[in-house]
Amino acid sequence: MKFICHPPSSQSRKIIARDSKVISSSYSREFDFVFDHAKGCHIWDVDGKKYLDFAAGIAVANIGHAHPAVIHAIKKQIEKGSHAAFGDFYAELPVRFVEKLLTFVPPHLNNAFLSNSGTEAVEAAYKCARWHTNKKWFIAFEHAFHGRTMGSLSLTKSKPSHRERYDPFLPVVHVPFPYVYRMPFSSEDECVQYCLNKIEIAMKKHHGDIAGLMVEPIQGEGGYIVPPDNFHREVKKLCERYNVLYCADEVQSGCFRTGTFLASEQFNVKPDLISLSKAIGGGIPMGVTLANKKTMDWIPGSHSNTFGGNLIACAAGLASLDVMRKQKLGENAKKQGKLMLKILQEMQERHEYIGDVRGRGLMIGVEIVKDKHSKLADEERMQHILCHAAAEGLLLLGAGQSVIRICPPLTLNREQVVNGLVILEDAIKTVKP
Ligand SMILES: Cc1ncc(COP(=O)(O)O)c(C=O)c1O
User: Fold this and answer.
1) Domains of the chain, with CATH numbers?
2) Could you say which of 46, 245, 376, 429 is the most buried, measured as most Cβ atoms within 10 Å of its Cβ?
3) CB 185 within 8 A of CB 155
4) What are the pLDDT digits (tens) for 402-428?
5) Residues at CB less than 6 angstroms from ligand 1
């Protein structure tokens, strides 16, 4: 059996041994962490070890783990029934959930398709764009991650292992995303202009046959890559000029993660289609695709599913939206994110291995390199830092090639920000070349 960090304690070890016999080997676990329970910003393993959670179940637990309002809503609903077969019959709760969700997003988004995961929320946006336009090409970005089902995977291009052996893919052209830190330009403007030119070339090449362009406002799995401020507005202009639907994948960046409900709001763009998942179901699997009714004009039978509109997910989602609003989690994400960025930028000055620090709200990436001059990605060092931090009680995830991803619950307080970053800096100092 392969232990990723260090041999875990006895209970964890036993479960990992059983797991390796019966569970698919396709999952890429980063830690030997075995979940037992979680509350707020903390999480415990089966050996009783407590961790400060800077991963939030991959950006799912935005309102914190096991929130009492969500538990109450789930319990209340489960007594009444969990499944209404919303694809075949009607139910009031999914309607109420969507009505509430629409109060969080720009008013042109007034129609929703409900599903169960991020990949389905993207798949629905992709299919809706193709149905509405009756065109077949899509534009997507290098380093993008949109999910693993074949439509979403055709758009995804973050790691070769995701796509290996799965071709042929659907007709998608991949174009560069402005990864300013890693691209050889002397200014942000030059970098943006280079990417815009590539997009325009793709739009001209397939002119008249492009349904949509799929983009993450801030790339997530690809390495928490924040584009320059004007990038999305310029892309949207190109989409309008070439009659291409602009689809924003906010599966990871949505639900106040970056400070506003949608990250797109910060870039001043109004997407034609939006995909949401992860935090939207309050911890229960849910995907939502939003558009204007004129765009979501597909006919009955053109897209549906069994579990979309699941009553437990809608009850948890409704309660979770209330918590986000009442507890002003967007404001907290901005405030704690600002503090975190400041501390990390100071840390960057002290350590040769921190090449870049970037982020919005509580969606922050720390890029680990061999040295600041060469900027060579140091994947091994990053993995050791994650392991050391976990051993000291801080749970983190990686992203991209060598980026430490910080995406804690948005309920995080100042003390937890500081304590977590002390552990992180200690790990950075301790890991030797
Ligand atoms: C931006 C983005 N889109 C889509 C997905 C796919 O979501 P899921 O794993 O729920 O299918 C993810 C997952 O990490 C994501 O980050």
Assistant:
1) 10-63+329-430 (3.90.1150.10), 68-326 (3.40.640.10)
2) 245
3) no
4) 999 999 999 999 999 999 999 999 999
5) 58, 117-119, 122, 145-147, 216, 220-221, 249, 251-252, 277
